[in-house]
Specification:
The protein has 126 residues and is of the alpha+beta class. The chain is 56% helix and 21% strand.
Length: 126
């Protein structure tokens, strides 16, 4: 039995949401057991949805500036990391690639000179 909307009535509704008249309710059932594990009764609790909707909207509206602030900070950190870390790493990679090409060219020229000096034929692609 329940006393929804001021009148006692039998309520055999499933868990979740129940509509009685023009009102919507959240419904939750909690069984109570004796010491042998036999169910004695089931307590059903129904609460009006309107206050929960109002609280949810209030919570979203009140926390929206915080979320937007965190989004702005995250974007700034991503930009800072890209500009100061990843661009620097990219420049270092390019510098090392250029240095590697110079070293390879130098080693190739040294080997070519050594082989010419001792009279060996050198077959390689530049």
């Amino acid at each position: 039995m329940t006393s929804l909307q001021g009148a006692w009535r039998w309520l055999h509704a499933p868990e979740g949401q129940v509509t009685l008249g023009d009102k919507n309710y959240y419904l939750r059932s909690v069984p109570f057991f004796d010491f042998n594990g036999v169910e004695l009764f089931k307590l059903r609790i129904a609460m009006d949805q309107k206050p929960f909707r109002a609280m949810t909207i209030d919570l979203v509206v009140s926390s929206l500036p915080v979320y937007l602030g965190l989004l702005a900070v995250a974007c700034f950190v991503a930009y800072f990391m890209k500009r100061n870390v990843f661009n620097t790493v990219g420049l270092l990679v390019k510098a090392l690639q250029r240095l590697g090409k110079v070293i390879c060219r130098h080693v190739y020229n040294c080997l070519l000179t050594m082989h010419k000096a001792i009279g060996m034929k050198w077959y390689a692609c530049q």
